[in-house]
Amino acid sequence: MKLLLPDSLPLAPTLPAGVTAVVYDAAAPVPEEHLDAEALVVWGSSRADLAAVAGRMPNLRWVQTLAAGPDAVLAAGFPGDVVVTSGSGLHDATVTEHALALTLALLRRLPQAAAAQAEHRWAPELGGVQPLRPRGAVTTLIGSRVLVWGFGNIGQTLAPLLRQLGAEVRGVARTAGRRAGFDVVAEADLDAELASTDVLVMILPATPETARALDATRLAALPAHAHVVNVGRGTTVDEDALAAALTAGEIAGAALDVTVVEPLPAASPLWDVPNLLITPHAAGGRPVGADALVAHNVAALLDGEPLRNVVAR
Length: 313
Prior knowledge:
Rossmann fold
């Protein structure tokens, strides 16, 4: 079996006998001489490059994307009999780390401190003697109410850390219940939760249902002291509505690691929106445990056993 591995990160999975691994350029379509491959691992390929070969690999049985969200692979148009598996679980630690960093940066007013430093100004309004919960923007996780919208693996990894820092944490998912020791609210009841939310962390995938899920109406439902953090997909936020809410002071701050258009153009008005922190899709990008996942799924494919992280199509 020929297995194609991207050159976008060093991969060295342990492979069964009879499997030949070939490294391909992830910044281009799979070359003609390798269109006969039976298995394809994807990391960093554009949708256009995937779409260019999706219908031209007659022996293809399986596509493994190392991204947590398989949207790019699903949009490429691979035949329905090709099994697609995701990188779910590979980004739990790194995205959690970044989400926590963005949340704390907003609450502890690090962008304002950086701006004051650039001015060579000691900013007494940001430090010294101060109340735990001053009027205006929330400045601590202690006693804060955090809503994690998208309570999958990453959300369930982040939630205990937020709780340890003093936050009251609830998840939001398609169905209500209790997961990983946390109460989970159904998406249908989300709007009622927003009014009592201090920090909204979004970890949603890109689907037709999640497009602009955080819109003007939901932003208006948040308290003026609330912060928004998005480490999911850029399409899940109405960027114009978010910019308007921040400019008008209707919410206290936001942090985006993802945007609708990436890279974010230099001319984008988002760069100049007040109280908006932007990072360049830096939360993930480092699939931890990719070799083990690829090795397991290769062996399972050859043995006719269930693969991990199969995506429903």
